[in-house]
Amino acid sequence: LGFAHKKGCVSVLTQPLILEAKVLLKHSNLLVYQISDELNFPNPSFFSKFFKRMTGMTPHEYQFSK
Question: 51: domain CATH number?
């Protein structure tokens, strides 16, 4: 498989996860570590790095953005 195909597969798998994280960050009273746990990440640090890599913002930045 080529790089573009692999990237597409990753996107298909991660997009629903990022969408759910965004909804929880904006529309719940959960803290970042609770969302990390809810989405089955191994730890909040991993979740934060993953979220930033996928969105360009940290979970905290996204949560308080307009």
Answer: 1.10.10.60
Residue 31, domain extent: 3-63
Token representation of residue 42: 């191994």
Query: Per-residue pLDDT tens for 1-25?
Result: 454 545 566 677 899 999 999 999 9
pTM exceeds 0.85: no
3-state secondary structure of 62: helix
Start-to-end CA distance of the chain, whole Å, equals 39
> Which residue is listed with tokens 């991993």?
46
Distance between CA atoms of residues 45 and 26, nearest Å: 19
